Amino acid sequence: MLPVRVSQSFNLQSGAFTVLVFHTVVFLSLIHSCRGQHKVVCLTETIVAMVDEDVIFPCHLDPVMDAFGLTLEWGRPDLNPRFVLVRRDGKEIESMKHPSYEGRTSLFTDQLKQGNISLKLSKVKLSDEGRYRFFSPQLGETAVQLVVGKWEHFVLKVIYI
User: Fold this and answer.
1) Is 20 part of any domain?
2) Cα 121 to Cα 112: distance, rounded to the nearest angstrom
3) Which of 94, 110, 124, 150 reaches 20 to 30 Å from 159, CA-CA?
4) In what residue span(s) does the Immunoglobulin V-set domain sit (predicted)?
5) Are residues 132 and 107 in the same domain?
6) What is the pLDDT of residues 92-127, one digit of tens each?
């Protein structure tokens, strides 16, 4: 009779172990599937800027996530090379940047840890107008359209007869 109880006890323990393993696998699967839930949010799809002004493409990660060490690429698909800013492993890679954007693009590096991936474009030119694409292998992509205007000076002449 004793061997039967040991056998039943073992069956109960193995059943509990199976349930524990099942719940652990489900829990770990949920954690893994939720990890990719961060998304890039840009506050507007179209930005208007004037020539010689600075403009910010306001984008952030939701929920907040440290983007400091991630691959972050801002580019224009119609350019060759297409990148206006590339950041990998915590460093900007100037050699990949289109020459017309040298010294004019930047990220708010002190705010990357809070998920701010906004692009700042300084001294806007008419040729900067176009579609800008943000891409990160870890986060996906989004796009923003930049429309550039130019101040025109008009002189109003009034002639009295």
Assistant:
1) yes
2) 17
3) 150
4) 47-133
5) yes
6) 999 999 999 999 999 999 999 999 999 999 999 999
Q: Hey, which residues does 19 pair with through a beta bridge?
A: none
Please answer whether residues 68 and 115 qualify as being in contact, where contact means their C-beta atoms are separated by less than 8 angstroms: no
Are 12 and 51 members of one domain?
no
Shared domain for 69 and 13, answered yes or no, is no
Longest dimension (CA), the chain: 126
Identify whether 63 is preceded by a cis peptide bond (ω within 30 of 0). Answer: yes
Beta strands in 4-156 (DSSP E): 39-42, 46-50, 55-57, 59-62, 72-75, 83-88, 91-92, 105-107, 119-121, 130-136, 140-149
Q: For residue 135, give its domain range.
A: 39-149
